[in-house]
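fwd from M.: "can u put these together and see what the complex looks like"

so here's what she sent:
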Amino acid sequence: MTIGVSRRAAVVLAIMLAGIGATAEAQERYALVVAGVAGGEKFAENHKKWTASLESLLTKRLAFAPDHVTILSESASPASAATRENVTRALASFTQRVKADDTLVIFLIGHGTADSTTAKFNLVGPDMEAKEWKAALEGLAGRLVFVDTTSSSFPFVQAMAGKNRVVIAATDSASQRYDTVFPEYFIEALTQSTNADADKNGRLSVWEAFVYASQAVKAAFEQKGTLVTERSVIDDNGDGVAKEATAATGSDGVLAKTTFLDAEPASTAANAAVAGLERQRVALEARIEELKGRKDQMPAGQYEEEFEKLAVELAQVSAKIRSAK
Amino acid sequence: MPRLTLPGAQGVICRLLAVALAVCSVSDGRTSRVAYAQGVSDPTVVKARAAINRGQYSEAEGLLKGVVAKTPNGEAALELGLLYQMLGRGTEARALLDPISNLAAGPRTSASEYARLGRAARALGEFQLSNDAYRLAAERDPRDPAVHTGWGELFLERHENGEAMKSFGDALEADKNWIPAMLGVAQVLMNENPPAAAKAVEQALSLDPESVSAFVVLAQLDLDKSDREAAKSQLAKAKAINPASLDVLALSGAIAYVEGRLDDFKSEAAAASKINPAYAGAYRVAGDLAASNYRFEEAVALSRQALALDANDVQTLAALGVQLLRTGDEAEARQVLERAWSIDRSNVTTKNLLDMLDKLEKFDTVREGDIIVRLDPKETPVMREFVGPLAAKAVAVFSKKYEFTPRGPLLIEMFPRHDDFAVRTVGLPGMIGALGACFGRVVTIDSPKARPPGDFNWEPTLWHELAHVFTLQISNQRVPRWLTEGISVYEEKLGMPEWGREGELTFAAAYGRREHMSLKELNAAFQDPEKISLAYYEASLLAEHIVNTYGMAALRKLLVAYGQGLEGEAALRAGIGVDIDRLQADFDKLLAGRYDPIVKAMTPPKEIEAGKGDPEAVAAAFPGSYQAQVALGEFLWKAGRTSDAYKALERAAQLVPMATGPKSPHAMMAQIAIAQKDRARAITELEALLEHAHTDLDSARLLTKELEQAGGNNASRLMPAYERVAALDPFDAANHSALGRLKLQGGDPAAAARSFRAAVAAGALDSAAANADLAEAYLAQGDKVRAKRAALAAIEVAPGYQRAQDLLLKLVTP
């Protein structure tokens, strides 16, 4: 995947990622889901469905420890209501608990509002501004994946951006005020991870989920024949300048591609032979990425020939790894 | 949604004739009421105009010459200049008109002086100057109807119908009895609203029974209704007033040509040539009328003859360009249109067509045997999978059925922008109601992206247009409109069970109100915007009736009869062996048998109309009332009595099986079933709904979802459901993938590969999986080369993709 960077740059990144992937995994994973005020029955049904899906995904499929997941919603008991107090308390608790190698995922579901000076996420009772969210997470030691799925969510990108943070917003402008369908497809990506797992490595990165959801949103609007009223964006290099999934420029995506919500699989290299094959596989994948990076500068026939050779080798090595296990 | 196969052709012809009339309006009988501005009082000029109106051109010339000698830039000079121009005496015309249009000459102060300048400038092709002059004239006397009329005629000639209408409206506001403005209104409305145009002309004739232009417009309107006898009658009246009217001679000759009276045609052309040896109109108008009768190749030949007389006749050049596009000769069409554009840079149609040709040059060309498909490059990867194969299937089906091999190659052009389709078809954007068009060997069509998803189904549209290829060609392009459209809609209905049904309920309702047409009225109804939709459906019923009663052979014989030049009753007798009265009587029986029960069921009881009464009591009292049963079903559903609601809605569905829309019985029963989580029932109801609502994309998608979630071995139901969605939205990649997998499981790897190719081309979200699917389908077909290419494409996206790797190993292992 070379979206957002030049092909040559992507090669370097890909090779680098192959090296850091194993070490960039979170040790502990935490999640906060906040489903704010629905503002009507029409929305409440969806919000409820999405919140329940996320809770189930996090605690079952993604195997987050139950005590690492906090769900705050409109219809919950006072202790779990999506109020400013409860959100502030939860954020403070996570800031305490999340260590440097850990990951905290925050999902915002509901409605956002923004004007020229402030952006808010609508809670039960008083709302919280983007700058308050930023302040509340100031001391977070670990990696943050912040997914604001609401209307007018764009200003949160700038507010929440920072080092070791992946920030996703459902809209690329504060003026995109229509209710969003992004959460539907982001959750779909997590649910149907096999389909969304674009590189088919068996794990769904945050980048892949974002790309899947972005494209699905676009397709949904096209199928309805209506103008697209939301374009999701991502920032993960900390500069607060977000980009769309299909943007040709912008270096965001590196961190998101190595951030996974599931637990790191146990090491497969139980013996030296397999470990050797794994090293070969990683090297071949890197060479493939390097070759793909040179595709534009090569005659098509030469590229195809070299690519096929590497692909066959990779397939053979992968087969050997599987049979050796 | 009506599909207008040929009105565009007629539209262009009408426009061209309208221009001709405007140009030649000097020969009109506007003796006293008409002037280029009010206040003209020279009795000699008035007398000269009367002579021109009678075709006594020499006498008029003599009268005007005397006045011109005294006032070289006056009204008489303009009149004489225009007369010379009409007679083909260009040098003399210019000598008179140049000084009048010389802006530097002056001073000019009055509205009439500026109007004169405007008219002279228009005659000389100085359109901008003419426009400016009319503006100044209108500023000086905003209440002068003649100024506004002259301005309107300029706009009409410049193809700006909106502005023309406004000017004619201003003229009529100043003087509601201003005859030339009425004729102007008629010319503007000829295409879009012929009945209103006829009304305007009749009003003009009531005030001036000797208006030659009025009779010519009426004749043209009659021709649009294919009523040549009436047209000839109008022209005879015009000829009695002015036997030397070029307009009348040209149109009379044109009618003679299309009727096969070639000696008469030559005689009229010779008469016109005697008046003006360089007059191209006799051949141009004949070409136009031939084209409006679908005879495009003959039209091309006639236009070429016109150009032989006047190589720079811009109207002919523009018309020939259009005609060549309709015969599929785009290369020469471009050359001709470029020549037309170099002469007249105001012709919007010509400009539109040239711009459209620029776009077409970037289109991809895909061949399917003798069928050439041209597609927008953005759509080619997806649509090439479907357009050519469907067209080939249609041609094969129709060739067998009609025992006829059409002359090819057939050219199909599909446009993702509706306005490009409209321009390719009639030269102008718009044509909102039209989805496709056929000219004999050329088919133009909206692509699925040209309209919101679910707005139409391109497949029956293409099927419909390709049926026209056969009816037009078998009949040597002489099939009447009712029959070609009737057969096309009839063939749609046979193409797929759910196609072509959308007009049925509307027709039934109209039948109930006795608003349907008699067979004698049917052809003309295609020219009436208020009746055209009904005409399509009624014509299809008539075609069906002919086949069912007299057999397919009789239908073919009828087409051949038209091709032999027979018309009306003679063609009917030769084709099916009955006269129109007998056919009408039998057809009436068919309609009564089929639609009387539906009309009865659809007639609402008074209680329902008044919105009163207990739904249960009303439904019990009127068990045969569709609306009573629907109302009861809805009432019971809301009351939570779903079982009873189903019963009422089932009764309603039996009464009017073709009802569609969210409040139709099947749609409501589907909603109830979904709410009740009764998936099996929901599926059944959605299937029943879609039998008549084949463009209902939302319901089609819902059906696939319900079937997928139902699971089990339901491939036989899933397959048509996916295929329906694929037809309505060929850019739905996920649907193609699902359909492809089903086809692969069903042992049809070729069809599966086509679906998977479409999925990849449509931008499947899971690109690696889509390519791996494709590789599997190719492998199942035994096509290892393409299978390997697809597997490698999957690995390029996802190097670690085990499924693609395994496929690749399978393909490279000896």
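replying to her w this: The CA atoms of residues 168 and 234 of chain A lie 4 Å apart.
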